[in-house]
Amino acid sequence: KAGVTQTPRYLIKTRGQQVTLSCSPISGHRSVSWYQQTPGQGLQFLFEYFSETQRNKGNFPGRFSGRQFSNSRSEMNVSTLELGDSALYLCASSYLAPSTDTQYFGPGTRLTVL
Amino acid sequence: SQKIEQNSEALNIQEGKTATLTCNYTNYSPAYLQWYRQDPGRGPVFLLLIRENEKEKRKERLKVTFDTTLKQSLFHITASQPADSATYLCALAGSSGSARQLTFGSGTQLTVLP
């Protein structure tokens, strides 16, 4: 079956702009999690959605938001971009819960903020 | 605050030897511990999950141990091959509520020398 897909793969934005990233999970998976990966902070949890509801949220400012649609596809939005938001944004899906099920990651979206 | 440490940032070993990677944690009582492999420019790939009541888990050449008294997990790759060269990440999760989100270590970059 098809893996987790993320679009776009690369994005360049300027400070102050906003960005929307998209994630299509593996068919049948209801949990979608988002992570930010940077060389300095490593892989950090942003939020998790399950059946269109945010189930968990990491320690990120309110500029970071997300949503999940009825077909389990998910989007995350970052408003008022800052230079420090430059990172690899990874989406992962699992059947029920990322802590207990195999979690499949997408290839990521590389965001550069100038 | 919760802290996860993975031994050295980089580990070099000779082909055919056993690689042992360490994941230590403090101020945390995880119910689940996972190991992932990440290649440059790609999303992490799930390898193994071990629960707090399990001492050891094996999968082909991989073995994971979980010692809740020492607050440590060891990840072994036996008969290592150059293709095993990658960054290996450990991730921990609690059993309920917000603790169910995965917290990742910073990773150990393993290089297997031919």
Overview of the molecule:
The complex is a heterodimer of chains A (114) and B (114). With 114 residues, chain A is mainly beta. Chain A has no helices and 11 strands. In chain A, the strands form 2 sheets. In chain A, strands 2, 4, 5, 6, 9, 10 and 11 form a 7-stranded mixed beta sheet that branches. Chain A has a 4-stranded antiparallel beta sheet with strand order 1-3-8-7, with no helix packed on it. In chain A, a hairpin with a 5-residue loop joins β7 and β8 (74-78). The model of chain A has no long low-confidence stretch (mean pLDDT 95). Chain B has 114 residues and is mainly beta. In chain B, the strands form 2 sheets. In chain B, strands 2, 4, 5, 9, 10 and 11 form a 6-stranded mixed beta sheet that branches. A 5-stranded antiparallel beta sheet of chain B has the order 1-3-8-7-6, with no helix packed on it. Chain B is built from no helices and 11 strands. The interface between A and B is medium-sized, with 25 and 24 residues.
Q: Give the helix tally of chain A.
A: 0
How large is the radius of gyration of chain B? Answer: 14 Å
Please state roughly what percent of the residues of chain B sit in beta strands, choosing from under 5%, 5-15%, 15-25%, 25-35%, 35-45% or over 45%: over 45%
* SS elements, strand count of chain B: 11
The level of helicity of chain A is under 10%
What is the radius of gyration of chain A?
Answer: 13 Å
Mean pLDDT of chain A: 95
- Principal-axis shape of chain A equals globular
Proportion of beta-strand residues of chain A: over 45%
Largest interface: A-B, 25 and 24 residues
Low-confidence runs of chain B (pLDDT<50, min 5 residues)? Answer: none
User: What quaternary form is this?
Assistant: heterodimer
Q: Quick one: how many beta strands of chain A?
A: 11
Chain-averaged pLDDT of chain B: 92
H-E string of chain B: EEEEEEEEEEE
